Amino acid sequence: MSTATAKNQSSGPVLDWAAGHGPVTGALSATTGAFAIATTGAALSMPPGWALTVGATGALGHTVAGLRVRNAGRTLAFKAASWLVGAGWTTWAMTTGPLSWAALGSLTALGVGMGAGARSVALYEEAREDEAIAAEQRAIAAELSAERRAIAAEWVERIQRICHIAVRVVGVEKWETGAGYSLDFEPQGGITYDRIAQHSVALSADAKLPHGCTATAGPGIHQGRTILDVTTLNVLADECPYPSDYGPLSVLTGLPWGVRTNGETVPVYLREQCALVVGPTGSGKTNMIHTILAGFARAEDVLTWVIDLNAGSAGLPWVLPALNGDLTREDGKPVRPGIDWLAGTHEEALAMLDAALAIGLHRKKAYQDLLSKANTDNLPISPRIPQILLVIDEGAEILVSTDRQIKELAKKILEVIRMLRAMGIRTVLTALGATGSVLGNLMIRREGKVRVALTGGETEGMDLGKMFPGRRGLRVDQAPYQGAGFMGTPESPAALFKAWRILPNQIREITAATSDRHPRLDDVSAKAAGAAYARRWDAERTAWMRDLTPDADSGIEPSARTGAGLNLSALRAESNAASQEDEILRRFRAEIDAQFATTADPNGVGQGDEAERPAGLNLSALREEQDSPAQQAALAALLAAGPEGTGASAIARALEDTFGTTRQTVVGWLKTWAENGIAVRVGEGTKARYVHRSQAPDA
C-alpha cells in the first residue's frame, strides 16, 4: 500500500454509500434533490407538470411497498405526503424561480419537517415491532404456562392420592433434551423428600411412564423443598457413545463418568473421595472402567495406576499400543502409555502399593512448607504435584478374600485408603456385586462415597439398599440395559444414569491425544517410589504383557495349535469349564493332604496295586461320600478343621468365591451329614459346631 493511499484512508470522514438514510440524511437528500430539479427545470423551461407526475408516482410506490411490509397507517401517510409536498414545492419553484428567499426558506422548512416526521414514524415502527415480539412471547409463555399448570395440577392430585401428602408446586421446568421435566414443590406438614421417594414405583406406574422411565424425588434447595424428576423418554436403552471431545480435564473440577436421564453429565470429584463400581458379568463394567481411565488420561493433574490380577486386561489397551510403537504423534515424538503404571501380577501389585505408601508418607514430611504457605492440610494438587488414582479391578473382592497372598494386598490397599487422602492418593475399586461381603468393610463404606451400580438387569447380588443407604425407590428392573445403572456422589443423590460406550479405537485416539498432557511424578514422590517406579516399563517387568507362549502343561505343541485343520477350541473350552471345579477341588485336597500328612488318592494316575501308601487320612474317599464338587469341598473343609470343628458360616465363606455356595445351603448339608453319621454336632445354640466323624472325640 502506498503512502498517499494510506493518507487518503486516514484523513477525512469515512462515508458508507451503501448505508440507508436516517431522518437527517433522508431529509437533506430530498430537499437538495428537489432544489436541483427545480433549478434545472427553470433554466431549461421544463413543463412544471412533470414534477407532480414524478411525486405522485413516488407516493404510490412507497404506499404499495409499505403495505407489503405491513407499515402503520401514519407511516404510509407520512411517506406519501412527503413525496407530494416535495413535488408541489418543485412545481411552484420551477414556475416562480427557485433562487428567491421565499423558495429557499420554504424548502428549508420543508426539510426540517421531513426530518422530524421521519424520526417520529421510525420510533413508532420500532415500538410496534417490539410490541409484536412481546405479544408473541406472551402468547408462547401463556401456552407454556398453561401446559405447566396442567402438569402441576396432575402431579399434585397424583401425590395426594398415592402418597397421601399435600404439596404446593413452585415451578415446572422442562428439560432441554426433551426427555422429561422436573417439578419443584413444597410438601406440606414438614414432610421431607424421602417420604415421597419411597413411592417412586407407584408414582411411575400411575403416570403410565414408559419402561426405563421413573419419577424420582430428591432434595430441593432446602429441607422443605423437593425436586421430582420425571423421565418421559427412555434414554437408557440406546447406546451412548463417548464424546469425541478429548479436551483437558482436572480432578479438582470434576471428571465425567456418564449422563443422567435428563442428558446432564455426571461429574465425580475424587480429590478426597474414593469410588466403588459394582457390576455383574455382562453389565458393562469393563467398558465403565475404560470410561473412567479415559477421564483420568484427559486430566492434566492425574497419574493413573491400575491393578488387575486378571492378566492386566483392564489396562492393556491403554499400554500395549504405545509400548509396541503402534501409535504416532504429529510431531514425531513417541506416545506415552495412557496409564502411568500397570500391575497384572501379585508381585507387581505389591511393588505398586508399596510405592504408593512410600510416596504418601514422604509427601507428608517433604511438603510441610508448601502446606504451611497454602494454609491447608490437604496437599495442593496440580500438574506439578499430580494426584495418584489407583484403579483396582475387583478390588472389593481382594479386600474380603481369605487367600493368604491376597490378604497381603488387601492390607496395603486399606492402608492407602486410610492414610493417604490428604496427600492426594485415592482408589477406585470394582466388584462383581453389591453384597454384604463387599460392603461389609467399614473403610469402603466410609471412604467410597462415589458409588456406581451397573445392574444390567441382574437381581442376584445387587442390594441397592446397601449400596445406596437412605435412597429409596431404586429397583434393578429400572435399568435392565447394558451400561445402565445407578450412580450416587456426595454432590448428587443416587439416580439412574447411562455409562458412555467407548470403543477400542477411541482408547487409541485418547492415548495419542493426551500423551503430552500426562504430568510427571514430582521429584519428591519419584525419589520415595525408588527403582520400583523408575523401572516399571523395563522389558523384563513388562514381558508378561507380550507373553503369548502357550501353557507348558497344556499337552499341545505350538505347531498343533496353529496348524491347519478342524478347530476344536470350542470343545476344549467346554471341557475346561466342566473340569474347572474338579481342578479346584483337586488342589484343595492336595493342600489338605500336605497339611495333615494324608495319603494320596488310591485311584490316581501311576498308583498301581503295588504303590506305597503312606499312613494317614485318605481324603479321596470324599468322592465316594459326595457327588457334588461343592459338597466334596465343604466336607474337606470340615475334615481340615480337625477336632475343634467349624460352623456353616466359615464353610460358606470358604466356598463362596469358588462355588457361590450360601450359608443356608451349607446348613442343610451339615444337618444331613449329622443325620447320616458323617458329621457330629458339638455344642448348642450359637456355639454349635460340626466335627467330621473321623475327628470326633469318641471316634
Spell out the key features of this protein.
Rossmann fold; 16 strands; 4-stranded antiparallel sheet; alpha/beta; 699 residues; 10-stranded mixed sheet
Q: Tell how many strands the DSSP assignment holds.
A: 16
The CATH architecture designation of the largest domain is 3-Layer(aba) Sandwich
Structural class computed from helices and strand pairing:
alpha/beta
Instruction: Tell me the strand percentage band.
Output: 5-15%
The CATH topology of the largest domain is what?
Rossmann fold
Oligomer: single chain
Mean pLDDT: 78
Globally, the shape reads: elongated
Number of domains: 4
Distance between the termini: 115 Å
Structural write-up:
The structure is a single chain. This protein is an alpha/beta fold. It folds into four domains: about 20-135, no CATH class; about 165-230, no CATH class; about 255-540, 3-Layer(aba) Sandwich (Rossmann fold); about 575-600 and about 615-690, Orthogonal Bundle (Arc Repressor Mutant, subunit A), CATH 1.10.10. The chain is built from 26 helices and 16 strands. The strands form three sheets. A ten-stranded mixed beta sheet has the order 6-5-14-13-12-7-11-10-8-9. The radius of gyration is 41 Å and the shape is elongated.
